[in-house]
Write a structure and sequence with these properties.
With 305 residues, the protein is α+β, with helices and mostly antiparallel strands. Helix content is 40%, strand content 19%. The C terminus is likely disordered. It holds the Pfam family LysR_substrate.
Amino acid sequence: MTIYQLECFIAVAEELNFSAAAERLFTTQPAITYQINALEKETGLHLFERTTRRTKLTAAGQSFYLDMVQMTSFGRQALKKAQDIQEADRSRLTVGLRQLFDYGTFSSILAEFQHQFPNACVDVVPQDNRRPLEQLRSGQLDIGFFYATEHSRDRDISFTPLFSLGYHVLMNPNSPLADRRALHLADLKGQSVVSSGAFDNFLSACQGPSLEQLAQVGVDCSKISPSFEGALIMIQMGTAMSIVPCLSTAVIPGIVKVPLLDFPPVTVEIAAMRHAPRLEVQSFIEIAKQKYAHPHDPLLMETLI
């Protein structure tokens, strides 16, 4: 019993006419008749009642037809699934990563993805803080990470929430504020806060304190670093502080973090273009959802900038 025989049988069962079935399958009526006769001989089933005027299914033929329609549908789905997996396994995926992301969990996401698609190539590239969505829209990224407050809802982009981060003040362990259980913005009066890159736009987009708000409470905002890594060094040296959203369990070597109470937590989301739901993109997002459904390792540095 071949797939082609089943296709011929289904065509005749639905058309109830051998000539119409032949036209539907772009072949000849004798070729259809041959395939049906071969199928009946092989299965031992009498599938059709045939006269010079009409063709109709027998009771056995009707039962066989219903099951074969379902089976061939499953067969097409299985073929499409296998083709999608093969295409995904040969694909290239570009993922944007923010500075000082949760590298531990991200690496486990990447490892699981590579386990599922061992031949896929994943490029991890820096994500732009100034225009975070443009890299997705332009096709530079297949997947990116965003704050829920960093964007307005976009019907062309699909956002999936992963976890939430509260704002913290990063400082040297010897700072006079390092022993505080929590801080208000006004408590930072007289302190220096270092900014880096698109720091002001970034914090404002995430509904965090802007440089203007910091200046209004008496914070010195004159210190600037060309990179966030440089800002971290200044914090470790004790020459400045910084304000970032991060997990309460985050441990940053050489730096103390104290919760900032004036601003609500922000939700971190993973995003991809909605119009191109590639299997590998969907799989990566699903793995990320599963990984972040479990508690984080408190030994990991889990800050997203």
